[in-house]
Amino acid sequence: MGLFTTSAPGTPFGVQAPLLEINQYPLWGTYVALALYFTELAGMLMAIIAVFQLKGYSSMSRKGSVAVFASAILALLFFDMDLGRPTAGFYSPFSAILNFLHSWMARGIIFVGGLLLFSFVFMVLNLFFTNDKVLGIRVNTLKNTVAILGLLSGIFSTVYSGFELAATTGVPFWNNGALPLLYLGDGIFVGAAVSYILAFFTKGEEGGRARIITTKLLAFSSISVLASWFLFLATVNFINVFDEVAYNLLITSSSFAFDIGLTFVTLGVSGILTVPYYVRFSSSVKTTNDLSNKVKYLMLAIALIALVAGYLTRADVLFVGQAAYQLAPMTPFQLTSTQPVPIGAFGWRG
């Protein structure tokens, strides 16, 4: 049930509904945390790689297309593992279309499914089509078009996975507008980390420029993550004691401290290393189109650290919010214990 423990059966906390004892056991665990993590990774990595494609970074585009598709597959795989019904997971996009208007989960699946589709087409175009034209259309034009569609799907799937929690009625701890912003910043954070790893193995001038760009992006995105964390924690809705319990669980947990510490390390190192590329007016700074060899390997370690921190960000919010949910699954929105479970699911989970 994740990194946190919650109340045991029979506790006086929460709604003790005889038919909906959802506060008696965990709803989500590591599978969902990993699914959310790979959703943001695939989504924002697609957005970053799409920009590289539009700027003519062909090698980064080719490597990134494979990484994006693999991440999207992992996201859907972990969602499917959590559902416990592989056939239902396979047909979930079709069910999602039918339930699109009234289910937040359905809308999220459509976005992730679109990301999977566009990333697959983008990967195929990059790996197998080297001719000038396909069906009378220039290959580069097709790549750019699919890249833009993938960029939009990536942003929607990343932000909406945060919105799914923030807007879900009955989960007061998550009812926070800063959550989609935190998930978007975290998605850029881990997307930049993977982009740097890809750039690390890219040769030539393209690789050098890509390493500088992704190092800068890591610095800026770490600032975004820290600012979003502050905004989220500063606006937690203390409408009842259960939010306070979850808040205290979060700020006193070792994983949260570890997460914030790793993010600060990423900011400190990547921020300091990018300073020379902004201080062009200084005569003592030598203009270069690549990082030094030592800095390359240092930033590789920082990128790996960022990947760990990015996972902890989503996992911490998920598990702590679940703790509040299990203590009081329907408060303050549910008035009676006969109301349905407000999680937007449509009968998949086995």
UniProtKB/TrEMBL annotation:
- Bilayer topology annotation: Multi-pass membrane protein
Any one Gene Ontology cellular component term annotated for this protein: plasma membrane
Pfam families in the record:
NrfD
The listed locations are: Cell membrane
Extent of the signal sequence: none
Alphabetical list of PANTHER family matching this protein? PROTEIN NRFD (PTHR34856:SF2)
Family stated for the protein in its record:
Belongs to the NrfD family.
Q: Protein name, please?
A: Nitrite reductase
Taxonomy of origin reads: Archaea, Thermoproteota, Thermoprotei, Sulfolobales, Sulfolobaceae
